[in-house]
Amino acid sequence: MILTVDVGNTRIKAAVFEGSTVLENFVFEKNELEKKIKIILEKFQNCSDLVVASVGNVEKQSFLTFENRLKIHFLTHEDVFPFINKYATPKTLGIDRMVLAAGATLQFPKQNRLVIDAGTCITYDFIDENDNYLGGAISPGLRLRYEALHNYTARLPLLTLETPESYIGNSTKEAIHSGVVNGFVYEIDGFIDEYRENFLNFIIILTGGDAEFLAKRLKNTIFANSNFLLESLNQTFQYKIDND
Ligand SMILES: Nc1ncnc2c1ncn2[C@@H]1O[C@H](COP(=O)(O)OP(=O)(O)OP(=O)(O)O)[C@@H](O)[C@H]1O
Ligand SMILES: CC(C)(CO)[C@@H](O)C(=O)NCCC(=O)O
Ligand SMILES: [K+]
User: Assuming Cys at both sites, which of 14, 44, 137, 147 could form a disulfide with 124, CB separation 3.0 to 4.6 Å?
Assistant: First the structure.
């Protein structure tokens, strides 16, 4: 039994796996980390390994209190990954993006893959059919767009996510919702179209906190898998055991 932990920029997600089956999912804040992990390990006494991917400011030390209870694996660039990294700055590539790319490579062999993670940031990661990781894009996520408009202007209110009535926003609120939500959807459809023009065949994996909201609104039909990062973390760990 394995406990996977994804420390994102905003919150922490965790899942307990038995083989490739998820037994339970958890979401919590960074200040609850120790307390929550303790509760999870009490419930799942058979957990033998804890696998972490952290892009947030939570370091390995935060997990060391559990060292006498189970094995801790804090993934870094030094670990083995199932793709060839062609990023020009491989050491600055986010570990979450590496894990997503690993999951895509292992789950969908011998094909082009595009992973879109709609979280705090939107990340795009492309791995070609020869398992070369080529890179992608990073842009502000949905909530970040609402917050940025408010934080860097004098007059724009902080709004929470709402589906715009029209692309022609007829009030301040509607204009913001249109700009944020439609802009977000157009961006992603635009990127997908660009990839389609350059690659005949590829699979798209859509994940992250806004994946389900997004999937319904894209002109391209894509299914969301909100758990893809944690599933990939579990697979990356199995791959590491088999290949270390
Ligand atoms: N309780 C919540 N807290 C924060 N974001 C939420 C929440 N519920 C839904 N969301 C949506 O999820 C998005 C953030 O995604 P996610 O939770 O995957 O981010 P994260 O934890 O920072 O992870 P990552 O850094 O890997 O993107 C926000 O844009 C927001 O619209
Ligand atoms: C882009 C984020 C913030 C997404 O979580 C993360 O992957 C990260 O901090 N990346 C480092 C920069 C890069 O991936 O090139
Ligand atoms: K993300």
Answer: 137
